[in-house]
Amino acid sequence: MRSLLIFTLVGVGAQLVDGALGMAFGVTASTLLVLSGVAAAQASAAVHLAEVGTTLASGLSHWRFKNIDWGLVAKLGVPGAIGAFAGATVLSSLSTEDAAPVMAAILLVIGVYVLLRFSLRTPPGIIAGGTKHGAKFLMPLGLFGGFIDASGGGGWGPVTTSTLLSRGKTAPRTVIGSVSASEFLVSVSASLGFLVGLRSEFLDNLPIVLGLAIGGIIAAPFAAWLVSRISPALLGAAVGGIVVLTNSQKLVKYFAVASPWSTLIYGGIVIVWAVFVYLAWRLSKAPSFALNQIPDAQPAADAR
Q1: How far, in Å, are 125, 147, 223 from residue 80 at the CA level?
Q2: Does 152 or 179 have the greater pLDDT score?
Q3: Domain boundaries, the chain
Q4: Which family is this protein grouped under (predicted)?
């Protein structure tokens, strides 16, 4: 019962982040699960199995509100599924000792990306007369995003959503809806990959999956409200810094970095993090930030 409560709280926290940023459910949940003592492969497997249900519901919701470009879903989701299966089998094949630093390193890089993305750049607008994305661009992006998502426990949203929005060729609501719908394929493929790789250990993840799902459902309404109350730039910088700091601790312990060097590393990260949070706060107060908060970008609660 205690474990179920912990995993439910993890689901609540991850959904609150995802609801406000439109991404990072997997990154947040995986980081918190690993910190709570769950092995890297099991954490990623549980997150993706939980996301099978959440992404299906999300995709159906976006379909109902006509936020989906099915061509974009196919060109992004199919290679994403292939990359996710490969990433899941690779992570499953590593020993627990080897998988932990690999996953921590990937999450660290994603955390840095999220931190920079939300503290240095205003939300992109739509380029007038923009064209649709081609398969030559979408397929490698999906393949890379799917592999990183499964092997690192998260990253589909930070990799694909941010990249597509930054190019400004598609309306934000369509990007978010299409990425969310395509993530269902990624989650199913990753879950199959973990099922093949982990075999009987895969069933041990069911309590974690249940907790994440319950927590996500509980937090979803509040997350939808939160997105209109908290600056995405400020929250994104805060979450990015948390992911960087927590996964840096994993790597420092793995490589046995002793004091005072470990203290200097943590202190440096905190100082840099504080600077970026300040920059994000400045960004959220800038007039250009308000102008970029167009209505199309608001249904961000469902994309990861």
Answers
A1: 25, 7, 27
A2: 179
A3: 2-302
A4: Belongs to the 4-toluene sulfonate uptake permease (TSUP) (TC 2.A.102) family.
